[in-house]
Each structure stands twice: as structure tokens, then as C-alpha cells.
């Protein structure tokens, strides 16, 4: 009896194992699959060896081709690399979905909420609301540029005080409050003082959420039960400890705005506009308190992390490339003179500064695997069949570090973005740091002027140098995004004159 049961069990396990390792017809090439785990062991071993997820994906593409199919647990992950494949993927609406799963729902109360990691009818409604409201609040227009310029002014004055005392301070952390204020004015209609301890905590918390799990959701998304077995190493414990206070902060802010007696007819920030929409008798069912918190979290996280990382890398590369830094400052002085800060209108007059920013975005590749996509149906891509619900990663790193196109992609060379005369910016079709298609980054209109104004203003007013004997490392911290390792600087004001009438 027991022998028969054992034999049947072994046969069933064997049959299941043989079936489980079979790849679908025309599935992209990739590592062999093991029962239950898929290619998981290979992926984990490669990440441990190469240290970074994007380098692991890139290595697989070099081994198997531009489109690689991997299975991690039961998730099928498609890595898309190279100009032709990525451009084709972005042009197909079948890839406009976002993945579902434990990790992607964890950050939005176990539901599919927000706008960054959702799709479907509710996403359509919420994205239209977010885009329309941000435009009404001035996004992409002069009104909102003035908000950025004010925070730049405050940052410059703060840096002048630090320069006067010879203070050594962390670069990235010193930018965070100003960047948070830019986003917070749009979201909540208010700003905070630079020394606000709670905002410093908030910025640090946001940064840390990007470095717990990789963009594909990590092992936690594949094996949610790991949160009970190893909550810390799976990322569940750390992520939950970061999300809870963020939720609390946003819920508290929303409640304060809701209690404002003028909230019923006020649309001076995104939160109040959302609450007005919720109060309408015929409002769409997707307008809920949980959706508002999730929407705010999406905009908060994306708006702060990427801009902060790009700026952190920008100043880091200036430390490593003094001739470039001097050339930036020379152009700024030539165009602006000593008595005013840059404005958005100066951007076309500062082609070298613009080229430096573009080269930083290229070589740092802050979002190396792009924003994660999902195949919404069975679809063919470049001759391969991509099964429905596959997680799709457009490997932007493969474009921005393409040796055949850029020749010397590991070299920091802003001139690659300039015309031969050096008087205008040259566009490259391999350079798409904000993605493409319908799921192109929502924050692009905020990020571009913010990065330009913060970078050029600091460069115009201060000489910066590393506070340590050795230059800080260029090696990034891995995660959903890449960010610079913390580094300290010392600054010297280039002129004692205050910029009282700068705009």
C-alpha cells in the first residue's frame, strides 16, 4: 500500500517536473529552467557575482541575444535590449501593462492603486486626472518653473551660509529638502524650511524604499510566503517599515487639507483637487482615500528619487572631471555674468551645461532597466512569442552604454551631445532616459527644468571639492534605481555678492 502511494507520488513529481521545465513554443532563449525555481538560481548567482541586476541582465543579453526569456519562480521575465527591440516594444500597446503580484500590491494596501504600477480602466481615469491637474497647477509652464527657481534661491542661500563656515556636508542629502518642496508645493500647496527634521527623515525614507528590492519585484514577488520564513532577507520587513510611516505622513497631510473649510471648492494642489473630485456625487469609483495615498506616494517617490540621484551623480562626475567643471563654470559666467542665477530661459544659451547633464543621465543610467512593463496578451516581439502576463524589462542600459554607437561609452564626454561647433545640442535616438510610448515617465516635465536649474545654479555660485583625501566612488548603489554612494563635499562661494534680484 505505502509502496504504491510512494511510487505514484514519485511518478507524479517526475511528470510535473518534466512539464514544469518545458518552455513555451517560440519563447525567447535564456537559461535552463529547474522545477519550481525556473532560472532563479542562475539569476541569484549572477547577481552575487556581478553585484548589479542590470549587469546581470546585460550579461544574459550578450550570451543569448537581444531578447532573453527568464523564469523566476512562476514569473516569466523578458529582458529586451538593443535599439530595434526596445523601440518596437515601446511602440506596441500590448506592452503597456504593469505587473501584478505581491510586491507591486504591497505598496498600495494590497490593491492595484496609484498610476505608476497599474493599468486598465481605473489607471486611464487616474492618469488623465493626474496629468490634467498637474498641467492646471502649472507643470511644464512658467508658473511651476518659478516654484523651482524659488527653491533654487533658498538652496543657494543655504549653501552660502555653509560655505562661510567651511562646513563639510553630504551632497545628496543637502538637495533633498529643496527637491521635496518642489514636489510638495504641487501635491499639498505648501513648503518646508530647509532644516525641517521631519522632511529630512522623509527624504531618507523615500530613498531607502528604492534599494530594498529590484525593479522586477525580487524574490518576494515570486515567493510571497518567504515573508513568514525570512521577512528580513526577503525584503518584506524592511519595505514594510519604510512604507508605514510614509503612508502615515501622507494620510495626515490629506486629513489636514480635508478639514480646511475651503477644501470643498479648492483646487490649488493635487490633493485638494482629488478631494473635490471625490466629493462630486457622480465621481468615478477609482477616487478613494487609498487611491489618493497611493497616487501621492507614486509622485513623491518618482519625483524625488530620480532627480536627486541624477543631481548627485552630476556633482560627483564634476569632482572626477575638473576640466569639465571649469568649462561649465566658464560658460555660466560668460552668459550670465556674476550677479544672477540661471533661469529656464537661459537653457538654450548654455549648450555645454545641457550637454553635461545629458551625459550624466547617459553614463549614470539612473533607471537602467526602465520602468517595468507587462504583456497584456500573448504577443509576438521580433519573432519571439511573449506569453500573457510576462514581466517585460526594457534594458535602457544596453542603449546608453552601446559600444558600437557611442564608441567609448565608459568615458565621460559631454561633447558627444554637442554639434561640431559646440553651439547646439545633438539628439541621439539611442538616448531615451525617460522611456517612450504611452507609459513614458510622467515626471519628465518636472525633472528636466529641476535638474538644469539646480545643477547650473550650484555650479555658477560655488567651487566644490571632495571633503575626503580620495575622490568618492563612482560605483552606484543598486536597487529599483541606481543612486550615488553617499559622499561629502566642501564648497567655496565664488562671489560674496548675494543674488537678491536673480529672477
Describe this structure in words.
- The chain is of the alpha+beta class and 503 residues long.
- It has one domain (1-10, 29-493): Cytochrome p450, CATH 1.10.630.10.
- It is 51% helix and 8% strand.
- It has 19 helices and eleven strands.
- It has helices at 2-20, 40-50, 53-64, 83-91, 102-106, 121-136, 142-165, 171-188, 197-209, 218-222, 226-229, 236-259, 270-279, 289-320, 322-336, 351-364, 396-400, 403-406, 444-461, and strands at 67-72, 75-80, 168-170, 373-374, 379-381, 384-386, 391-394, 462-466, 476-477, 483-484, 488-493.
- The strands form four sheets. The protein has a four-stranded mixed sheet. The chain has a three-stranded antiparallel sheet with strand order 3-11-8. A two-stranded antiparallel ribbon has the order 5-6.
- A hairpin with a 2-residue loop joins strand 5 (379-381) and strand 6.
- Helix 7 runs parallel beside helix 19 and helix 14 packs parallel to helix 19.
- The chain is globular and about 90 Å long.
- Mean pLDDT is 87; it is low at 496-501.
- May be involved in the metabolism of insect hormones and in the breakdown of synthetic insecticides.
- Its cofactor is heme.
- Heme binds at residue 441.
- InterPro entries: Cyt_P450, Cyt_P450_CS, Cyt_P450_E_grp-I, Cyt_P450_sf, Cytochrome_P450_fam2.
- Keywords: Endoplasmic reticulum, Heme, Iron, Membrane, Metal-binding, Microsome, Monooxygenase, Oxidoreductase, Signal.
